[in-house]
Amino acid sequence: MSRLLPKARMAVTAALAALIFLLPVRVFAWGANAQRLIASRAVDTLPPDLRYFFDANRDFILRHTTDSLTSLERNPKSELPNHVLFLDHYGKFPFDTLPRSYKAALAKFGRPKLEASGLLPWQIGVYSQKLTEDLRTGNWDQAKIEAAVLAGYVAEANDPFNTTENFDGHLSEQIGVNLRFNSNLVDRYSLFFPMRPNDATFISDPTDQAFEACLSAHSWLENILLADRRARAGLSDYTDDYYDRFYNQAGAVLIRQLTDAASDIGSYWLTSWINAGRPALPQR
Question: Whole-prediction pTM value?
């Protein structure tokens, strides 16, 4: 029996990968309103020397923060691993069997395992470096694009459902719970969100910080799933009563993750600017 287990695991992984490629892109992302809210609040976390550039380009960044999802729609097989990190593929919290160095993780698990389980923290590290290089060389137009794309990836690291193979509730028989949490609740209640992100701070290791964001987001999964089940109890559908209950029970977690995402994005932008040598930025 023990000889069959690795084969069984490979079959499950292959089946999961096939399922993922059939799902709509929005399964793996905050809703559009949430993405714009996060990115806009991130601009407000920046110090004055940096904020004026991002504030002048706020609308541009909000339009392009979902560019990575457009890439995902066009190339789902190659792009999907960059949007997720299925931590539950690596045992139990705090998932310390997974090295945070990509080279070490690759040597330990191999490329197929890593790609099937997601590369999101390393992708964030890559785009953090790209933004640094654009700022260092004065490639301002490309820097705006990289800043927006980086914001999208960092936001995803703060979405609990981007950190689990139960990304849409299919394993817990709660299909669509991710969209109810990270899209529908935002669309319904965002005007009441008391979001107060922290000021941006320097990040010593962008990839390591991305892992920490994924771990923190993942730790809230069971709370969200329980809130969803309780909110649905006694109801035949996802009614206004359901959403009121769900927001009352999971709203604090949602606001926390949106707020943390905004703080993180601002910190990544600030870090790239500092690592680029604090260049003087154009007015636009």
Answer: 0.90
